[in-house]
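Reviewers of the previous submission asked for a worked example of the structure-prediction workflow described in the proposal, so we include one complete record here. The input consisted solely of the amino acid sequence. No template or homolog information was supplied to the procedure at any stage.
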Amino acid sequence: MQAERVERHAAPPNNRQNDARSLCGQELKQRLARCKELAPLRLPHLNNCHCGKRNGILPKRYASLAATKTIRRNEQQEMNSKTMVLFSLCGIAAPIVFASVVVIAGMFYPGYSHSAQAISELAAVDSPVAVVQNVNSFVTGVLLIAFARALRAGINSRRESVLGPALIGFFGVTYIGYGFLPCDPGGEFVSTVGSLHNAIATCSFLSVLTGIFIVSRTLAPDPNWGRMYRLYSLITAAAGLITLVLWLTIASPAPPGVPRLIARVPAANGTLQRVFLAIVLQWIEVMAIRLFVVLRRRQEL
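From that input alone, the workflow returned the following structure tokens.
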């Protein structure tokens, strides 16, 4: 009798243990299936979040939200990539648009000389084509700013890769400002506005040369660019600086009270300025073409 009582009292705990084990097995299978289902949504950095997940697995109520955020992030990155490709095309268009309008505007300016007169004189206060040249400068400035933004996205993330494109973007900003600060006739330092125009132009030219030099420092470690573009950028910065110094010391008008070291050669004013701008704009054209190729490759990955 005592053995039967022991068996009766011992049987229920065994049944309960078996039931508990089966429930644990079923729960474990469910959790494993859930882990496989939500494997792409593992967020280890959220392990301390009180949202009911374990081992970085989001529960079902957060799964759709995380997926939606991922989709939006991917769409935003794709949109940014397309925008940067479009901005690189702006860099390709900027030199072509600016040079073409300058040549055409000079045809409608009676007595204008491309060799002796600066480009800014097309937009001087007494110019018959001032509106055309001001629009040209504004459009070119916007295109250059867009190119500078794309250039920032197309080179590596060193500190210099931010400063270099920023200085090139400032070069574009000054083009926009030329429409509000026309030069005096002959590019002389007569009025306050004309003097500001000349001073800002000089700062702009120095800015773009500095930006090109800084960009050259970031190109060699980047496999998308390499040493060839770095060398070309260094040559561009050096050649542009030499031409700028020659233009300012030989042909460009000097500020009042500043003595000239050598006699001025007014006939070379337009020529030296155009040589300088040709060096800079050619660099922008070459870099923009390569930038378009680099950004398109990234977009296809």
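The helical segments are 2-37, 60-107, 130-154, 160-178, 192-219, 226-251, 269-300. We consider this example representative of the routine output the project will generate in years two and three.
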